[in-house]
Design brief:
445 residues; alpha/beta; ten-stranded mixed beta sheet; 10 helices; 28% helix; elongated
Length: 445
């Protein structure tokens, strides 16, 4: 039999590997005059090429970052203009060393979220399989980014994007939370349509609300619910005196039932015929679904993001920004107090915006590290003209990085205004560093 070994390769991969291993070129120069609350803040905004910055962060932030979110260029033909046969290869060569270096910064329980569209989704998945390991793939969020489709595609209108999720070590990664389960909520064991299996309930683990009695073995099926009691059950002082078995279609396996028993969880049967319920009493995490939508879980769209930018700046200073509500949802899902959140394709600063909003909501002090190239804004281009004019009117250098810093300043003031005294303990500042490629060095603390 012929055995084939799968290998993901592309033109220039060897050079991309070497790029990740090459020493850093430059140093990070502090810019207190650009910063807010320099002496006290632990947040960072770094201007410069993210590959070199990631190299400089390897020692001071090795295994310290809980969450990384990036929204890299999507290789739609706008950001990377190459012949068709090497366009994908160039995108992969750009991404590979950055993802490899980013992995070193993640904590053992850390996760990375990567926004992507259809053009490079398949390649990104294979690239992350190689860098992070297939076994650490957590799933893919589908984000409903638009309320009305774009019909640029010849075949269908598009309203969604993807967020690919990988863990440093999936076995140690947290559940992706969508809040806490309501205390006292009941979860039925019965689940019509599942396979038939027999569950054994040990002595004393079930609380009965149907009075002390002996319930004889019998078929307890009704309608589409199939349940058969295989043993007589003696109920004494509201508990089953001995073990008993129920055969039926169950939501939970015997292994899960054994976990409930070991944890001392509350299991209740209120009547005959038996319909066991697990009662949540621990406020355990409610896991998110993989659909992020304004329709179901209130995650905003690109249209909302545009309105958000207009509200902050009074102009459309950024094309296609990510909404802070999307960032806030992801931040809340996997981080808590003192965790570090990183974005090395920071753009207009949506990630920091989401971190600040979530900190204002729950009082935690998550920290952020943003990295953004000081890419010049072109006055002659229609998309960047409003941002250029805004910078000119406010005495700022006309770069994307300046827009990001100004956004964070304005959001911080808004959080302070909205939360008043409760915001007194929040870190609303940030230190600015600028990559100086003329010198070799590391992060200046």
């Amino acid at each position: 039999m012929c055995m084939l070994e799968y290998s993901f390769t592309w033109r220039g991969k060897d050079r991309a590997c070497l790029a990740a291993e090459a020493p850093a070129i430059g140093t990070l120069r502090p810019c207190p005059d650009q910063s807010v609350d320099w002496d006290a803040t632990q947040n960072l905004f770094i201007e410069g090429d993210n590959l070199e910055v990631l190299k400089l962060l390897q020692k001071p932030y090795h295994k310290r970052v809980k969450m990384i979110y990036i929204d890299p260029p999507y290789n739609t033909g706008n950001e990377f203009v190459y012949p068709d046969d090497i366009a994908h290869a160039d995108w992969l060569n750009m991404m590979y060393p950055r993802l490899k270096l980013a992995r070193n910064l993640l904590r053992d329980d850390g996760v990375i979220f990567i926004s992507i569209d259809d053009h490079e989704f398949a390649n990104l998945r294979k690239l992350c399989d190689e860098v992070y390991g297939e076994e650490n793939f957590c799933g893919v969020f589908i984000w409903e980014k638009k309320k009305k489709p774009s019909f640029l595609n010849v075949n269908m209108g598009s309203v969604t994007e993807y967020i690919v999720c990988f863990a440093k070590n999936r076995a140690k990664s947290p559940p992706f939370a969508a809040g806490s389960v309501k205390d006292g909520k009941k979860y039925p064991f019965n689940n019509a349509g599942n396979g038939i299996q027999t569950l054994t309930f040990p002595a004393g683990v079930v609380r009965f609300n149907c009075g002390d009695q002996v319930v004889v073995a019998q078929d307890m099926s009704e309608g589409n619910i199939r349940t058969e009691l295989l043993d007589d059950v003696e109920i004494v002082n509201g508990r089953n005196a001995g073990a008993f078995r129920l055969r039926g279609e169950w939501r939970y396996s015997q292994r899960k039932l054994d976990e409930f028993v070991e944890q001392g969880a509350e299991i209740v049967i209120s009547k005959v015929p038996f319909r066991p319920n697990y009662v949540n009493r621990r406020g355990e995490v409610k896991k998110t679904s993989n659909l992020l939508s304004y329709r179901t879980n209130g995650v905003p769209t690109n249209e909302d993001a545009t309105q958000e930018i207009r509200g902050l700046f009074g102009a459309d200073v950024m094309s296609y920004p990510k909404p802070s509500g999307l960032m806030k949802y992801l931040v809340r899902a996997v981080t808590t107090d003192d965790d570090i959140v990183m974005d090395f394709f920071a753009g207009s600063g949506s990630t920091a915006h989401g971190v600040l909003l979530q900190n204002g909501e729950d009082g935690c002090n998550r920290r952020y590290i943003l990295v953004q190239l000081p890419q010049p804004l072109n006055r002659d281009e229609a998309q960047s003209r409003p941002a250029f004019e805004f910078c000119q009117a406010h005495g700022l250098r006309p770069t994307i990085a300046e827009i990001g810093k100004e956004r964070i300043r304005r959001v911080a003031k808004k959080v302070q205004s909205e939360h008043g005294q409760e915001a007194a303990g929040l870190d609303l500042g940030f230190r600015v560093f600028r990559l100086d490629s003329g010198n070799v060095g590391s992060l200046s603390q």
